[in-house]
Amino acid sequence: MPAGAFIALEGGEGAGKSTQGGLLVQHLRDRGREVVWTREPGGTPASEAIRTIVLSPEFEGLDPRAEALLFAASRGEHAARVIRPAVERGAVVVCDRYVDSSVAYQGYGRSLGAGAVRDLSLWATGGLLPDLTILLDVDPVIGLGRLSNPDRLEAEPIEYHRAVRAGFLELAASDPSRYMTLDASGDVNEIAHAIADRVDSALASAGAE
Ligand code: TYD
């Protein structure tokens, strides 16, 4: 049985994570892998219920610490019920957003501090981190311009989204062996090929092929 793997897709609003996630999942399934494609906040019934709360424009002004705790609670449930069991049985988990979204949006965007927010998620998940994180980097002016009907986070001012982007780039720069950063304004198929190549080599070196 091949070894499992955990791959996270990260990036600001409108970076194309869903499109690239879908293409990566198809690529892996074509190669015969069991793939679990999931997202945060969400991925279990309770975590989807938390998603409804945190994204609802009804809760404008939600306390930043409460917001961070809700994302961490959603993540703890998701890691325990979906991600960890799937990796243990040999599947490849492709997750749209994970811990780094909390570090970037709550740690940098809400100025709660990267270390505290990361520690909260590590506690919530029992220390579960991705084997590889793919960061789709895009100027927030371009990314937000791709969206319609903004949710509570998307509706934040541009300075907030600039801080989020800087946070993601700092995280990726701090550990290049666990991150792949791509310019998300590029050609969709070229980005997809680059991601597939990097994931294939990560799986091969993990003895997963
Ligand atoms: P996303 O799934 O990208 O939204 P959409 O369905 O509109 O594409 O992410 C939901 C929002 O939640 C997004 O604005 C980022 C934010 N978020 C955080 O602030 N912290 C987190 O830990 C996560 C996972 C998401």
TrEMBL record:
Q: Is Secreted given among the entry's keywords?
A: no
Name this polypeptide is given: dTMP kinase
Q: Which reaction does it catalyse?
A: dTMP + ATP = dTDP + ADP
Family to which this protein belongs? Belongs to the thymidylate kinase family.
* Residue span(s) of domain Thymidylate kinase-like: 9-195
Species annotation: freshwater metagenome
CDD domains per record: TMPK
Keywords (alphabetical) are: ATP-binding, Kinase, Nucleotide biosynthesis, Nucleotide-binding, Transferase
Q: Which Pfam families match?
A: Thymidylate_kin
Give GO cellular component annotations, separated by semicolons: cytosol
